[in-house]
Request: fold
Amino acid sequence: MKITPFFFFGGLLGLLLVAACTTDPILPASGIIPEDPIVIDPGENNPCPEGTISFQYQILPIMVASCGYSGCHDRASHRDGVVLVDYASVLREVRPGNANRSDLYESITENGDDLMPEPPAQPLTTTQKNVIRDWINQGAKNTDCGVPCDPSVFTFSGQIFPMLQDYCAGCHGNNRQDGGVNLSSHANILATVRNGTLLGAIRQEPSFASMPPLGSALSECRVAQVRNWIEAGAPNN
Reply:
């Protein structure tokens, strides 16, 4: 089974790389950070039991960002007969309760030329592979409980960067940079903060290309974490 990401984030064209950050608020070109929209996120009002993996909020974003796009495993392309865009299609590639005998897990943990996603796509991180493994071993259920989120906690290393890895890095990492966008480092991400495209895209404003374009949008709390991090000066902490 071939699993190759294709993620287009057109609203982030023309990035200006910035080498360092300041402790002052980082504003878009307009000088104004717009208020966040009101988004109801039932998942965050229904937190997962401790240790439970949420398919909707942890697994599906990885599948959509790293697999389920045009030319790969969206419905139209269905490369090698595989579609990975929702629970039913992902479930066909796993054996609930047994990650080691699941095609999906085998593909993302292969060695050498058989490893998926294929270059130049960004490979899944160890954390992403482990959460997919644990979800399968827990029975591969269509869990839609929420992942704990506190908008007042927004460090770059703890919340912001892992979030962008799950939702964006498949096509905007070191190995693949669709639209000329690389979100693999603080300096590159800071450039999208300064030109206003990061916040506009994750809030899915009409004048920006939505991120992610398919699957679950970032929740109100996740957007608030990014906004608060930006207002704090977008530190590399």
Summary: The chain has two domains: 18-44+152-231, 55-137.
